[in-house]
Structures are given as structure tokens and as C-alpha cells.
Known about the structure:
The structure is a single chain. The chain is an alpha/beta fold. 44% of the residues lie in helices and 14% in strands. It has a 4-stranded parallel sheet with strand order 3-2-1-4, sandwiched between helices. The protein is globular. 24% of the residues are buried.
Amino acid sequence: xxxxxxxxxxxxxxxxxxxxxxxxxxxxxxxxxxxxxxxxxxxxxxxxxxxxxxxxxxxxxxxxxxxxxxxxxxxxxxxxxxxxxxxxxxxxxxxxxxxxxxxxxxxxxxxxxxxxxxxxxxxxxxxxxxxxxxxxxxxxxxxxxxxxxxxxxxxxxxxxx
Length: 161
């Protein structure tokens, strides 16, 4: 409502955009999709603050005008290589924690943070985002009926809601 009362200041605020489910710039297809996505967003929303939540955050540092943080996937696995087995036991714990964090934020508008600066950078990006987009590419596929990677990708989008 503050934007409607003081629209001049609101219009000056940059759009905060979070792009989730980003894999690695070492994959040339993912890199090309991200380049077009970032360029399009910067043209459509000049001055926007774009945050990329990536499985391989170091590979995306080359994009000027963006902030890169570690994705939700990195909380539970080495998702750059698809190593989920060692992390399966952590997934339910993080699902419960993230569900509680999201409910607390939606009900009371209070931001909850964890003890990890890396995780808190991602949480802050979710809290501040005006728009959350899932990266283009092959994110929503599964080789099994219940793939941990597929479920975690869906949850990253659900968490934004």
C-alpha cells in the first residue's frame, strides 16, 4: 500500500528479481538460456536487481549486474554432479524447516534466518523478491518416479509462493 500513497518513491525502487533452479554455466545450453533471460529482464526492467540462485554459483559470477547465491539444492546435496544419496536424510529436515520459515513469514511478516551466511543470502533473496522465475532448460524432468532432484526443484518454486 505504501507504493500507492507515495508512488514517486515506489517507481524509483528497482525491481528485485530472483531466478531459481539454475544449474551451471559450464553447461553451454544453460549458459545461453541464462544470457538471454538476464538480457531480457534487464531490458524490460532497467535498473532491476537480479539474483541468480545456482547449483554451481561460482560458474555464474561472469554475469555483470547480477548477484549469485547458492541454490536450495546446495543445502542438501552436491547438485552440480547430481549426488543426492548422501543427502537424502537431510531433505525431510530442511523441508520442515523451510515450510516453517515460509509459514512464519507469510503469517507474521517476520524474516527467519539460519546460522549459515550462505543460506541466509538465499533466504534474503526470496524475502526481498518482487518476482521469482524458474530458469529455462531441463529442470523439470525425472528419470525415476520420485527423483529427489525433481522434488527439490519443485519445492524451490513452491517456497517462493
